[in-house]
Amino acid sequence: MRHASRSVFVLRLFITAALFCASAFRLGALTTVTNLFSVNLAIPDGSLSGISDTRTVSLPDYTSITNLQVRLAISGGFNGDFYAYLTHGAGFSVLLNRPGRTVANPIGYGDSGLDVTFVNQPTNDVHRYGDFVMPSGPLTGAWSPDGRAVHPALVLDTDPRTALLNSFSGLDPNGDWTLFVADVDSGAQGTWLTWGIELTVVPEPGSLALFLTGGMAVILVSNARRRRSNLNENVIFLCKCPHYLNFSGREPARPFRTS
Asked: How far apart, in whole angstroms, are the C-alpha atoms of residue 221 and residue 204?
C-alpha cells in the first residue's frame, strides 16, 4: 500500500513538472512571422465589387495562431468610403467599414488615405479614429479593427463589433489568406498599395506529447519493478531467518533497540 501511494505521489509530481515544462516550452517556442504583399491597384470608385488579393502562407512546422496583426496601406480616396475585410479558414474580420459614418455624419470621414496596423488588443476603434486624432495626411498608427459586420450602406458607429481579429486565434496559419477592399461611394478614387499579416504561431505539439507519455510510462514501469524487487527481498529474508516465523501463533521477538 505504501509503495502504491508513493507511485501515485511520484506520478503526480511528474505530471505537475511536465505541465510546467510544457508551458515554458510553449512560451519559448512562440515565433513571429511577417509577410508584406504589394498590390498597387486602383480601387473601383463607387462599387461594392471592390478588389481582393489572396496570398498563400506556408509554415509547415507551425499549426496554431496565437496573435495576428494586419497592415493596410491605401493612397488617396475618401476614407469614409472604404470597406475592407480579411478571411482565412473560419476566420473573418471587418477591418474597415466606412470610418466615421454615424447618424449625424452619413458620409464618414473625409480624410484621404491610410497606412495603419490593425491589432488584436483592446485599443482605439478605427471607425471612430476622429475622436482620437486629426490626421494632416494619411491616417497612421495601430488601431482595433472596425469589426461591424453590417452592410456598408447601413453601418453606424453604434453597431456591435462582432468581427474582430480574435476569430483567427487557434487556427492553422497555413493556407490562403484573402483581403478584400472596396470603395463603396463615388467621388474620389483610392489606390491599394500594400497589405501584410504578422503571425505569432506555435509549433506542432507532437514531440512534447511523446515526451509526457514516455515519461509517465517510465515511472510506472520503474515503480512496478521496485515493488517486485521489494517483495522478493522480503521472501528471501524470511526464508533465511526462520526464527522470525511464528508457528506457535505468538508474536515473534522484536530486535532490541537502544533508541
From this structure: 28
| Alpha-carbon Rg for the chain in angstroms | 33
CA atoms within 13 A on the CB side of 47: 10
Q: How confident is the model at residue 189 (pLDDT cuts 50, 70, 90)?
A: very high
- pLDDT above 50: residue 57: yes
pLDDT for residue 33: 96
Instruction: Provide DSSP, 50-84.
Output: EEEEEEEE--TTEEEEEEEEEEEEEEES-GGGEEE
List, for residues 104-157, the tens digit of each pLDDT value.
Answer: 999 999 999 999 999 998 899 999 999 999 999 999 999 999 999 999 999 999
Q: How far is CA 192 from CA 22, 95, 225, in A?
A: 43, 14, 69
Q: What is the pTM of this model?
A: 0.72
Q: Mean pLDDT, the chain, as a whole number?
A: 82
Name, in order, each residue with C-beta under 8 angstroms of 29's C-beta and a sequence gap of 6 or more.
Answer: 202, 203
